[in-house]
Amino acid sequence: MSPDHVRKLDRLDPLAGKRDLFVLPEGLIYLDGNSLGALPVAAQQRAAEIVAQQWGQDLVKSWNTHAWIDLPVKVGEKIAPMLGAAVGQVICCDSISVNLFKLLAAALQMQTDRHVILSQEDNFPADLYIAEGLGRISASGTLELKLVEDNGIEEAMDESVAVLMLTHVNYKSGKIHDMRRLTQLAHDKGILVVWDLAHSAGAVPLALDDCHVDFAVGCGYKYLNGGPGSPAFIYAAKRHQDRIRQPLSGWMGHAAPFAFDTQYLAAQGMRQFLCGTPPILSMGVLDAALDVFEGLDMQVLRDKSRQLGELFLEQAADTGCLAEFELVSPTDSTQRGSQLALGHPRAFAICQALIDRGVIADFRAPDVLRLGFAPLYLRYRDIARSVEILADVMAGKIYQEEKYSKRQKVT
Amino acid sequence: MSPDHVRKLDRLDPLAGKRDLFVLPEGLIYLDGNSLGALPVAAQQRAAEIVAQQWGQDLVKSWNTHAWIDLPVKVGEKIAPMLGAAVGQVICCDSISVNLFKLLAAALQMQTDRHVILSQEDNFPADLYIAEGLGRISASGTLELKLVEDNGIEEAMDESVAVLMLTHVNYKSGKIHDMRRLTQLAHDKGILVVWDLAHSAGAVPLALDDCHVDFAVGCGYKYLNGGPGSPAFIYAAKRHQDRIRQPLSGWMGHAAPFAFDTQYLAAQGMRQFLCGTPPILSMGVLDAALDVFEGLDMQVLRDKSRQLGELFLEQAADTGCLAEFELVSPTDSTQRGSQLALGHPRAFAICQALIDRGVIADFRAPDVLRLGFAPLYLRYRDIARSVEILADVMAGKIYQEEKYSKRQKVT
């Protein structure tokens, strides 16, 4: 594909203006927005305002005057339209892991005669760890975590399964599950479904209500650009909200937190998922970060994200630089999220060589080079340039240089 | 006490210089540092640095280059000396409520034949809610939360009790428990003890190791000045760390989080208490805020805090403005934390009238006016002035004005 064509893609990009809403380091090509989203200008401003004015000057009064107390609801409702969720079903709080614990425990209590959580072997391991942890203290005492391969999920759905827990877009391969179909199949067997939207929210259009999803969790710091360790969110379908009892029953989830009653009485609706005092600074920054999505058609975002990935593969094919790689992601761009996973035994060294050359990619053990395409701030020319750099690294076998081949992954 | 004497107290205050380390609103007297600590200058600077440089410029690389991955340990170790805790026993993470859940579950698993959590009726209710929540899903299925009055704790410690859960400084009255004695008595009966240090850490000297405390939790946003909803901390005695299994087994608590193993393997030491990705912005700000304690003798802090409270009561006695109040806190300043609780049927209206006059106090339902004395940034003259304002409010019965008497507490 010619440079002219790449320039044309940028010129015609309906999202081109969004890039100006971000602070981006000069000269860097950031292909890791699926790990940590870039900094929105509004988020930087909000951080300064929360610290200087809300905390520094207005102090404890800000719980009312700046409505800190409502921030989890406010942020949840800002995320909701991106999930295809009507009002009153999304709240921002804690981390994905903590939220998953709440939801799995709540779902299991709704399924008193079933004791299996079904999930996928290559699900994001943290999700599996949480199910394991819950199993260790679960009242049933017989909670079983059953892991199957991707292609064995449908077959494994039987009447023993209480909860199906899946990640919508696989963290490594980027493969997208058919949410509508799997949710329907699960419901046919009386199974509740918990979806992890970590690599979906803000990247692919979602229709949770329309797919009759039961529960979901998602992440604030990837495509939602909320900053490092930004709080996560929970979705719970309205129809379930009156029957939920979740075990992390902290005071912020109480019907009247400041009445200081001795006994817990869960709040109505989504507030019942709140636990301790929320990290206002991190959550307020996420609130501001979400404004870049205002009025945005998620399909336009999705179209660009697919085109970015396709451009990468086309350009790479032209240079032949992927000869040694295995495409771990689905070849059809409609079947993968906003990322590409490229398998190579030296993926870690290649990733390091790219980073040294200003292309921030990600490595996922043991052998995957992961490239994320955040369509809000990446240009087509960035993709073309990143392919040139990868081609140099591969052609010159630069990743075999001692400093790369000997470098070890620490974290 | 004469104005001269008050001036002298300020002049001789060994902590006077610490006030300059804080951003404080002009003309405000802030007696609510026990709810939300004031803003340290260093915290403001750090917030800007984390956002602009670490997130904005260095992006995902900051997990290594700015050691985000070690932040929970680093912050924990900064807090440790204030708790009288040797290295390797404190970590910063999540909220008090979430952390309490981890510890209670872990402690109960160490006490397989006992099923009672003993606590105090007027413990901070959120702590009770968490014990309740754990009880609902606990594997024993028979977990009982037993609540007794303050003076019934010792008698209630018997061989049925697995865990004694107490707040060291009562959130309302400020009454201090004898940590050494109660921990010893509990151990004599084979009971493990979990202390909540929300109103202790950064306000009163603590000696957790020396008192053979088993477990503790504490708060980052009160006397530690970490900002609204700042992450909390956990203390776990070294001797227990190899036997702990906590159910919120998220990936940050895994021995090798980035190996992406399917099975959970808990990290050694305190990292096993980590769950999801920490809120770096909020935690980094707490890290900077803690520097105001560097090299500080906690006894000097405690002495000033007691003197501030005593000055308040002396000045108030001179004016007679406490005639209608009941002192809910212990009269002996050695028996209370860094706060005073004053009971009055119209406490809410009085609190509002004070706030309108620039004295930020706190109300605790149903009838307590709570005044916190944060010795790092309060001057003796502030205390004297706050008494004058309270005296005006009481003498003029200003709190009976329609706008106060009709105002309702919302949050």
Name the features.
homodimer; 411 residues; Aspartate Aminotransferase, domain 1; Aspartate Aminotransferase, domain 2; 2 domains; 4-stranded antiparallel β-sheet; 13 helices; globular
Describe what this molecule looks like in 3D:
The structure is a homodimer of 411-residue chains. Chain A is α/β, with parallel strands linked by helices. Chain A has 2 domains: 3-30 and 297-405, Aspartate Aminotransferase, domain 1, CATH 3.90.1150.10; 45-293, Aspartate Aminotransferase, domain 2. Chain A has 13 helices and 15 strands. Chain A has helices at 3-12, 41-57, 62-65, 71-83, 96-109, 125-137, 153-156, 179-188, 280-289, 298-319, 347-356, 380-395, 402-405, and strands spanning 22-23, 29-30, 39-40, 90-93, 116-120, 144-148, 161-167, 192-196, 215-218, 232-236, 326-327, 339-343, 359-360, 362-364, 368-372. Chain A has a 7-stranded mixed sheet, with helices on both faces. Chain A has a 4-stranded antiparallel sheet with strand order 11-12-15-14. Chain A has a two-stranded antiparallel ribbon with strand order 1-3. In chain A, strand 5 (116-120), helix 6 and strand 6 form a beta-alpha-beta unit. Chain A starts with a helix and ends in a 6-residue tail after the last helix. The mean pLDDT of chain A is 95.
